[in-house]
Amino acid sequence: MEEKSDITISPVKKSEPAWVTVIPNGLRGFLNEAGETTRFALRFFREVFFPPYELREVVHQCYEIGYRSLTLVGLTAFIIGLVLTLQSRPTLSKFGAESWLPAMVGISIIREIGPVIVALICAGKIGSSIGAELGSMKVTEQIDAMEVSGTNPFKYIVVSRIIATTFMVPILTIMGDAIALCGSFLAVRIKSSVSFTLFFDQVFGATDFSDFLPAFLKSFFFGFAIGLIGCYKGYNSKKGTEGVGESANSAVVVSSLLVFVIDLIAVQITEFFGYI
Q1: Above 60 in pLDDT, residue 35?
Q2: CA-CA distances (angstroms) from residue 246 to 192, 199, 254?
Q3: CA atoms of 217 and 112, how far apart (whole Å)
Q4: How far is the CA of 43 from the CAs of 36, 49, 131, in angstroms?
């Protein structure tokens, strides 16, 4: 009779390189998250150019992301233009430069305030919405069910939402700039008798296409970052229903931070090429 051995062989664990153990856990987690997000973005670019194209879902997401955000963006932009003008008037009047108020507010809104404020609003509203929606689909196994049924969930869910945010945020930015300038005109009209035509003549006389173009182009990157982070956080949600809230929260925080980082890079690039 052969004796059975009670010895069990445990799998050999791969040891990490020595230099990895030197990196603090917080930094290691950040680098790992950055790498996973980059891989997620590369997968998006790989999927977006090959059929099938979910055009109907893209149009639907444009409606959900763009049209349903217009009220919030418009109201916020109107208040920003109104408050900025009212706060700037006393300072300019001290130096006798009150006539420069429309030009100053117009340049400020078109170049910087409009795109960044709209992007932050979209990061809070759209980013959290996408993160929560995809997170709930993940924990309820709806994404797994789509894979079983033969549908590509990444193309249907992720690609359509990133495309929609990439193109809707610039459109919302243009509308937000226009509404903010209308709010600024109302603030100017309260204290003086400037006509609508004269106000906008001064605004567009002081601005140039080089003021509009960099702001418009960077809003595409704002939209892409918001859609990418919202989809990544929701698509990789964990820990059951608790993970849905974490996905929505982290999507807002990370996408808002990325808006400022992209804006900083964009300012450096435009300054290098002489647009500032």
Answers
A1: yes
A2: 50, 46, 12
A3: 12
A4: 11, 11, 18
- Under a CB-based contact definition with an 8 Å cutoff, are residues 220 and 33 in contact? no
The HSE-up count of residue 229 (CA atoms within 13 Å, CB side) is: 26
* pLDDT band at residue 1 under the 50/70/90 scheme: very low
Sequence-ordered alpha helix ranges (H) in 99-195: 101-108, 114-122, 128-139, 142-148, 153, 160-191
> Distance (Å, rounded) from C-alpha 62 to C-alpha 180?
23
Total-model pTM: 0.87
Across 27-36, 77-86, 146-155, which has the greatest mean pLDDT? 77-86
| Residue 100 DSSP label | G
User: 3-class DSSP state for residue 274?
Assistant: coil
Token output for 263: 């804006």
Count of CB atoms situated within 10 Å of the CB of 14: 6
pLDDT above 50: residue 74 = yes
Burial 16-32 (b: 16+ CB within 10 A, else e): eeeeeeeeeeeeeeeee
